[in-house]
Amino acid sequence: MTMDWSPICVASTAIGASEELDNDATSPECRDTGSRSPIARESDSPSSHEDPASPSSSNSDIQASPAAAVAIHPEDNLTTHHFKSVEWTPDGTTLLAESANHCIRTFILPPDLLEGEKPHRLSPYSTLASAEPTYASAVYPFFNLQDPTTCLFLSSVRDHPIRLASALVPTSVASYALVNPMTEAFITPHSILYPSTLGGTHFLTGSDSMICLFDVSRSGNEGPVSWMPTIPSKRKQIVGGGVGMKGIVSAMAVNPTGDGILAAGTFTRHIGLYSSNGSGELLGTFNIAKTEANRDIGGKGVTQLTWSPCGRYLYIAERKCDGVLVYDIRVTGQMLGYLRGRNALTNQRMNIDVVNSGAEGSHEVWAGGIDGIMRVWKDPAFTVGAHDPDWEFKVHDDAVTSAAFHSSGSVVATCSGQRRDENSGPADNSLKVWSMPFLNSE
User: Could you tell me the pTM of the whole model?
Assistant: First the structure.
């Protein structure tokens, strides 16, 4: 059902795109917009991590001026490559966006975002380029723009160590090696989780049949604090014990209620639940392949896991899937229902967001489709079986790869684009911010 009112675009990278210079270069040659910002870094040495609450507390030499965030940098062409994902930083001031040309860009929103009649032009404050594709990223859970030492994020780049980088300066602060002990080759995590429940001192990675826990103070070649296989050891199998799941751990999420339950999903369509924020025992596993939803909306592997605000329900997004699965985690392995009509039958990652919309566990799921439409399902956990979208908005002229809701409750960031050949027509590779004041009046 289409509503009578529409979201208002308040900022976009597409504004004035024709004025940008062509910068269709390979990833290592992406221009670092941070070099044109009033940020100085006197030393490139790794952080000593003296303050566990701030992984970069020793880097007090990083200086930033948030007022410079809206400066226009025409050399950074944002329309050449599509956006793969976008997410808000925990303080709600900044967007972190990943592009198909192996660049992660920082967009600091102007203070007058919701003021004025014309949309603001979004320009990157800083650009961190990589020689190889980025598989996963995660923002420091206590990110605060007023304290540059906290403006950090993790990313895993193929065939390289995991890096901790500044969102304000295109420079790595520290690196963490995850190496296969048999081949000595780097293992590239397909998922990274930097949860606030671990106090900002530890983070988790998911790779092939393995979840690892890292201590941010142990940088370099020391490796993870613990290795936790998601499949039982051969010894346990021989004696008839052990339950697990095999496959690349492609998504992870910690229950927001603080009970320490970690949900992990794989490309082989398994879900595992672990205690103690992923470092404890296996609570149970289940397969999402043979369900009623599979016949209706399909699915070829988990790409994202998100909890409901109340921590009772787990939302599962997959590639090649026309919807989202809803599981009641109080009864492990029981599917409550599924959201259909998303229009996301693609191998591309299409990120969703779950938004608190009221008291008594009321919430919504926001998700984009390959048709450029962002759809909303209200209170999906209150419906058994199939649930069609309640609202929908046309926000892009291409696939909506992410829909990220601001904590204010009335602002949404979306990004778009997809891999195309030369004859597939014009592309919409853009990042937009939308104001939805009507949501506060509901």
Answer: 0.85
